[in-house]
């Protein structure tokens, strides 16, 4: 009997994906560079389904039905190229290589183009949900050709997470690097979500004066409303946890230095290339970077700040409600920005992305899963060409209702010296978008002054330059 699909790279992610496929009744060929890992997987989990273990790439390929479907789950970068180089000579036109690692979308575009010329489908696939997701149902974002999805889609939809309405959290995203691009933006949005939650915690701690256990209760309540999400849920659990060694709140014994593996940075780098303002994601990446600059922080530790006056309990409770509104409005902004980036990338790379379908497959399995995403799905279903989420009447209404509390929170934070780069950047974005006139007119006039970069007038067509160094007469330049 031949296998319907194969997995090579059996570390935690690959091993769990292979088990997930086998548990769904598929025959799965398994292979790993170091054969001991393959044997360990079969020894421990072989009883869960039908696995065809192979020790060599040749045996692995020979154990697959045609067209062959090979999931590569190795370390991103050089190892992915090494595996492609090793396996592709053994494959035939029509076969499919699925890269489920966290590849950069430009690498995926390059690999897809090279393999396409040989008739092999290369499907760069975003997989979110970590190791638990890989085993129990991740959110899956496959790129590559539409043809490859016809053969691969049913298998992937089978093992994907299911949204609350039962639909699989997997859809064909678009050609070449589209899947990995969308996974990258997912991670960027995840950075922003986490930063906003961290700021809400910081505000409740230092302005409302709540202890972590009390803040956990607040987050638990928020999790029953419009902020209902995996990240809010785990935040409440972390904040309620007490360190067994010291008896202190766990959050107080963890060093306040956040690390990163790079997908947030990639998102911002791509946004800069596309000219899309993703200030919420950028502030989140920078906030992690700042936290790690220990020497700078130590040198600044004695700089003066405001004196804080603790709020009385009634005011603290009202403040906590305002923080919920600020968090929600800021979250709408960061999703607005992330979806704008996907829309711009779709145009730049010719992907024709279905933004509503992308929101739909993030409703389950992935780290940013949230009730909120169903609202985004509905907004794009109602108006697929909407110029941003804030153009949706429902989101516009909610953010409009939250804006006063949002301003209070950002102002209180500034007054009390609590840093809120995420909340503040989101509010600035909101105010800039809705401004009737931006000071960009002055910026453009300055550019014309020192660089003769010309400007357009509000009252007439054409490009103009003023002779700033001379008689200041205006000339039309186009
Ligand atoms: P790792 O990223 O730790 O990679 C280990 C695997 O790569 C092993 O199977 C190893 O084989 C294989 N490998 C390496 Br390293 N170099 C190789 C080479 N030159 N040729 C062949 N195989 C090679 O595994 P992981 O943590 O399971 O992650 C797999 C992928 O999934 C990564 O791209 C990662 O970024 C991504 N990931 C995603 C999530 C998520 O939530 N979506 C979470 C974690 C990871 P060996 O056993 O012979 O050393």
TrEMBL record:
What's the Enzyme Commission number for this chain? 1.1.1.44
Q: Which GO terms describe its biological process?
A: D-gluconate metabolic process; pentose-phosphate shunt
A Pfam family annotated for this UniProt entry: NAD_binding_2
Keyword Cell membrane listed? The answer is no
What does it catalyze?
Answer: 6-phospho-D-gluconate + NADP(+) = D-ribulose 5-phosphate + CO2 + NADPH
Domain 6-phosphogluconate dehydrogenase C-terminal per the UniProt entry, residue ranges: 179-469
Q: Give me the residues that bind substrate, please.
A: 102, 128-130, 186-187, 191, 261, 288, 447, 453
- UniProt GO MF annotations: NADP binding; phosphogluconate dehydrogenase (decarboxylating) activity
The job of this chain, per UniProt, is described as: Catalyzes the oxidative decarboxylation of 6-phosphogluconate to ribulose 5-phosphate and CO(2), with concomitant reduction of NADP to NADPH.
Query: What family does the entry list?
Result: Belongs to the 6-phosphogluconate dehydrogenase family.
Q: How does it assemble?
A: Homodimer.
Q: What is this protein called?
A: 6-phosphogluconate dehydrogenase, decarboxylating
- The species this protein belongs to is Wenjunlia vitaminophila
Its taxonomic placement starts with: Bacteria, Bacillati, Actinomycetota, Actinomycetes, Kitasatosporales
């Amino acid at each position: 009997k031949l296998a319907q699909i194969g997995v090579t790279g059996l570390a935690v992610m690959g091993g769990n994906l292979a088990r997930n496929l086998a548990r769904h009744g598929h025959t799965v060929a398994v292979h790993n560079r170091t054969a001991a890992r393959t044997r360990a997987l079969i020894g421990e989990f072989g009883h869960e389904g039908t696995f065809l273990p192979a020790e060599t790439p040749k045996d692995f390929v020979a154990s697959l039905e045609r067209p062959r479907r090979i999931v590569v789950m190795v370390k991103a970068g050089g190892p992915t190229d090494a595996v492609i180089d090793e396996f592709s000579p053994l494959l035939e036109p029509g076969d499919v290589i699925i890269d489920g690692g966290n590849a950069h979308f430009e690498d995926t575009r390059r690999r897809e183009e090279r393999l396409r010329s040989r008739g092999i489908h290369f499907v760069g696939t975003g997989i979110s949900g970590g190791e638990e997701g890989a085993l129990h149902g991740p959110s899956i974002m496959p790129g590559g050709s539409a043809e490859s999805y016809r053969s691969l889609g049913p298998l992937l939809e089978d093992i994907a997470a299911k949204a609350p309405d039962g639909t699989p959290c997997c859809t064909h995203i678009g050609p070449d690097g589209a899947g990995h691009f969308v996974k990258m933006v997912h991670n960027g949005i995840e950075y922003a979500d986490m930063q906003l939650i961290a700021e809400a915690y910081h505000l409740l701690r230092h302005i409302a004066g709540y202890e972590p256990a009390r803040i956990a209760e607040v987050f638990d309540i928020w999790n029953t409303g419009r902020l209902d999400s995996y990240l809010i849920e785990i935040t409440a659990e972390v904040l309620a946890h007490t360190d067994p060694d010291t008896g202190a709140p766990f959050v107080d014994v963890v060093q306040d230095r956040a690390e990163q593996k790079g997908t947030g940075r990639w998102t911002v780098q791509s946004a800069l290339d596309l000219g899309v303002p993703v200030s919420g994601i950028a502030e989140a990446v920078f906030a992690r970077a700042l936290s790690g600059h220990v020497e700078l922080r130590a040198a600044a530790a004695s700089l003066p700040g405001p004196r804080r006056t603790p709020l009385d309990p009634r005011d603290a409770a009202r403040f906590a409600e305002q923080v919920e509104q600020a968090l929600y409005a800021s979250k709408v902004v960061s999703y607005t920005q992330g979806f704008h980036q996907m829309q711009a990338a779709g145009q730049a790379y010719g992907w024709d992305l279905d933004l509503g379908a992308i929101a739909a497959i993030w409703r389950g399995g992935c780290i940013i899963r949230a009730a909120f995403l169903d609202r985004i799905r509905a907004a794009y279903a109602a108006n697929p060409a909407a110029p941003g989420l804030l153009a949706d009447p429902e989101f516009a209404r909610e953010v409009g209702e939250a804006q006063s509390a949002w301003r209070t929170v950002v102002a209180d934070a500034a007054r009390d010296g609590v840093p809120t780069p995420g909340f503040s950047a989101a509010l600035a974005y909101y105010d800039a978008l809705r401004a009737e006139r931006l000071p960009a007119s002055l910026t453009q006039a300055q550019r014309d002054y020192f660089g003769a970069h010309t400007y357009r007038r509000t009252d007439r067509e054409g490009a103009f330059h003023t002779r700033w160094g001379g008689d200041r007469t205006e000339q039309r330049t186009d």
